[in-house]
Amino acid sequence: MGVSQTLTVTESSVNKSDNTSKVRILWKSTQTGESWNGYERTGYYYVSINGGAETKYSVEYSLPPESTVTIVDTTIIVPHKDNGTGTVKVRTWMNTDISAGVVENSKTLTLTTIARASTIDSLTCATKYFTGKLTYKYTPKASSYYNRCNISLNLDGEYIAVKSVLLGQKSASQKTATVTFSEDELSIIYNELPKTTKGTLRFTFRTYSDGDYSTQIGDAVYREITLSIPNTTATQPTATMTLSPVSSLDSPFDTLYIKGRSKVDANFTNGAGKYGASIVSYKMRVGGKDYGSPYTSGYLSTTGDITVTGIITDSRGFTKEYEQTITVISYSEPKILPASDENAIICARCDVDGNLTESGTYLKIKARRSYYKVTADGVQNNFCAIRYRYRNEGTNTFSSWKTILAKDDTSTNTIDSDPISGVVSSAETSYIVQVGVIDDLGESAAVQVIIPSDFVTIDCPEEFKGRRMAFFRYVGEATEDGLYMGLPLFGGSIDSLKLGTRITATSTAPISLNDYKTPGCFYSPSAENSQYITETPYTDGGFGLIVREMQSTKYIRQEIYYGRTNWQRHWDGTEWSEWLRYLMTSQETSTAADFVTEIDLYETDTGSWRYKKWKSGTYDLSGVFDVTPISAGTTGGVYYSEQIQIKLPFSVETIQYTGSPVEQYCLFVNAALVSKGDADNNGIIGFRLMRFIDFSTEAVSVRIIARGRWK
User: Fold this and answer.
1) Quick one: 562 exposed, middle or buried, by C-beta within 10 A (0-12, 13-18, 19+)?
2) How many CB atoms lie under 10 A from the CB of residue 227?
């Protein structure tokens, strides 16, 4: 019989974030037999946390007979130490005031240890590059623990260690730390990113209970940041670029950069990417144009110092540019020009004393050369000679070239030759002489001059019995029957002075004019035999002249003059046009005289035009213009112009035609006509010219004559 008491102290829950635990204190008393006390009394219990001073609490109680009563049943919040450990000690005291006397109990409870790992609160970088200063903030939870930051590169879940920072013990409050990477540490990162410029860094924090960093407290925490590799000289690829000229020229020109004749070639060696990157491409840039393999430019078109840029690209997309300067020397094909005080190249007959004469049997040449010296480092590399060659009318083969001003004669550029013998040795023979230049690059140019025979009004040698006849020259060495003319046609030179062949029609051998597309004269027999000349535009006999108007190899115009009528047609390379009849002094009906019904002067953007309208239905239009075309290029010393456009004073549609609309134009110029098109509906015609002198040196005089019909 007596009083029996129990004291239990238990941990009911743990709060890691607050570093606390809930603890239940339960104090019970059991009375048996005659031991009891029904009076209200005061008892005491004392609580000590983590070894600290006791806190005294009082409680009112009574001890009923034969019963078990709860004196105290309470739950308290117990804070742990900074390191997460904790203890609770509870002591009870009661004076029963009966035979049991004073009853005391004591219990001590060791709390569950709470892991006190540090936290990482933020992670930033001063720039977007790995080379920037990284700043991170973290908060230690216990000053007695040790902190460590590990930095690694996150490659899709595979972590490559980069850097480890031992932070040691820190007070339990937020801290700020910074880190920068050394060259070796950057190399670790960059070498793992050979084909990209971005990567992810992971900052991992761990907390340890010992200075050896061997016993980890709690779980690791981390933050990540994505940064880029900077595009700098330290990360860009490198290579060696060597430049050299490329041409088909011989020494010394093969080592020079020459305008229009040389290309530049780049050779790339020792190409290497940085930090694990590889080279993916090279290219060369010249004059704003890029060239890939084999890294050879087009022909250089700019003179002076020009910049050549080599561009190397690596697997990250980083590029490195290398610039070198080359010097391009001016060059253009040589030219044969008139002497400075002359209007044309002199190439003519002279006597033994050098006096110009139509009957001379010596040749006089006076001309000037123009060429580029291709000077490099003060040394002239290119030289140019003036030369000539010739043939007579009866042969098709020129002589070999003969030099009259040597390349190495640099005292003058003008030749005024002494009388040259053995070239135009016969006064009765016409010759063709070519005077030209050739330089050390192998480029040449030449002009062709016809040296006519001695001037006579008419030559009809007895031995040819009328089969051969020449006007204003001698028959000379002509080998074919025909009529020959000693004056050039339309102010231009012709390769052969032969004008044509006489055609004889017979009843057994019909003749078609379509078979005769070369300049010439023909004789039409009497009316009874005229049917044997097919496609003849008239029915009675007479004399006609066929003239080739166009210098194009395709276009031919035939004109036949008979009486007071002019017939015309043209060959366009495929077929002949219809014959067109143009009355000269009378209408088709012989009863009325033809006369001009209207004369007017038109002013246009391109010049003045004079217009005549005839009662017969014919209109004539003419105009003379000075134009300065741009040279489109040269071939063998011959200059070709770009297209020239001239506007007629009316549109084609404004002319009302009878039958099929037809217009033909004759262009008389101080140059040869290369191509011409008919006027479009707006009255604009276009044509191109050719001559031996650059068009930029002087204007070209163009005379346009148009003829058509109206109603």
Assistant:
1) middle
2) 19
- Strands (DSSP E) found in 274-423: 279-286, 289-291, 304-314, 319-329, 335-337, 346-350, 362-370, 375-376, 379-380, 384-392, 402-405, 414-416
Q: What angle do CA 234, 240, 241 make, to 5 degrees?
A: 125
- Radius of gyration of the CA atoms of the chain, in A: 57
The DSSP symbol for 586 reads B
pLDDT of residue 574: 61
> What letter would DSSP give residue 143?
T
Where is 611: in which H helix or E strand?
Answer: strand 607-614
Instruction: Write out pLDDT tens, residues 292-336.
Output: 999 999 999 999 999 999 999 999 999 999 999 999 999 999 999
- The closest alpha carbon to 207, from 162, 281, 150, 130, belongs to 150
As a dihedral over the C-alpha atoms of residue 386, residue 349, residue 479, residue 505, rounded to 10 degrees, the angle is 110
d(CA 701, CA 125): 77
Check residue 644 and give its pLDDT.
82
Cα separation, 482 vs 503, whole angstroms: 10
pLDDT score, position 298: 94
The structure tokens listed for 445 are: 């140019």
Torsion of CA 466, 469, 475, 478, to 10 degrees: -80
**Threshold 0.85, pTM exceeds:** no
Lowest mean pLDDT, pick from 101-110, 263-272, 273-282, 509-518: 509-518
Q: How far apart are CA 287 and CA 266, in angstroms?
A: 14
465: left (phi over 0), alpha (psi -120 to 50) or beta: left
Tokens at residue 266, please?
């780049």
Phi, psi of 13 (to 5 degrees): -165, 160
Strands 289-291 and 279-286: antiparallel
Domains and CATH numbers, the chain: 2-110 (2.60.40.10), 119-228 (2.60.40.10), 238-329 (2.60.40.10), 335-451 (2.60.40), 458-583 (no CATH), 596-709 (no CATH)
Identify which has the larger pLDDT, 198 or 576: 198
Q: Grade residue 655 by pLDDT with cuts at 50, 70 and 90.
A: low
Q: What is the mean pLDDT of residues 251-276?
A: 95
pLDDT at 524: 39
Calpha distance 606→520 (Å, rounded): 36
Residues with Cβ within 8 Å of residue 97, at least 6 apart in sequence: 37, 39, 41
User: With 70 as the cut, is the pLDDT of residue 661 above it?
Assistant: no
pLDDT for residue 458: 78
Q: How far apart are CA 632 and CA 369, in angstroms?
A: 22
Nearest to 682 by CA among 708, 709, 657, 645: 645
Gap between the terminal Cα atoms of the chain: 158
Contact 265, 302 (CB under 8 A): no
In this structure, the chain runs to a length of 711
Mean pLDDT of 434-462: 86
366: left (phi over 0), alpha (psi -120 to 50) or beta: beta
